[in-house]
Amino acid sequence: MINFNYESEFTLENEEAIASWLSAVIVSENKTEGEINYIFCDDEYLHKINVEYLNHDTLTDIISFDYTMGNEIGGDIFVSVERVLDNSKDYNTSFDEELKRVLVHGVLHYCGYKDKSEADEILMRSKEDEKLTMFHVEQ
């Protein structure tokens, strides 16, 4: 089950479409959907989590806590809406596209994809692009 929670003024306009797409992404990776909670927040909220739990004193767009067990993926994914907005400007893309990229990025981590090395990052970007295409096909 995919849940959306809000710790900021932001709310998704198309929760059902996003949840359906993310569910399809999980199936396309031969995984089973467990409970995935997205928590939308601001920079300050996510920064506190980054410092307290990860000992990183930086701003970030996403932090995920992975509770995957075997083939059933699940976890809590915190998303800074402020960071996504800034990144969309930096990468010259729409807020909607950048938000979908971040949302699928979290799920892809749960599916086993990493982004620490350059090779891993290239594969992650490729998978993000592939899964973003799935959203456009479904709509």
TrEMBL record:
Residues given in the record as Zn(2+) binding sites: 105, 109, 115
Family of this protein: Belongs to the endoribonuclease YbeY family.
Domain of life: Bacteria
Cell compartments where the protein resides: Cytoplasm
Enzyme Commission designation: 3.1.-.-
Record bears the keyword Metal-binding: yes
Any one biological process term the GO annotation gives: rRNA processing
Function: Single strand-specific metallo-endoribonuclease involved in late-stage 70S ribosome quality control and in maturation of the 3' terminus of the 16S rRNA.
Taxonomic lineage of the native organism: Bacteria, Pseudomonadati, Bacteroidota, Flavobacteriia, Flavobacteriales
Cofactor(s) recorded in Swiss-Prot or TrEMBL: Zn(2+)
Enzyme class name: hydrolase
InterPro entries given in the database record: MetalPrtase_cat_dom_sf_prd (IPR023091), YbeY (IPR002036)
Protein's name in the database: Endoribonuclease YbeY
Organism, scientific name: Flavobacterium aquariorum
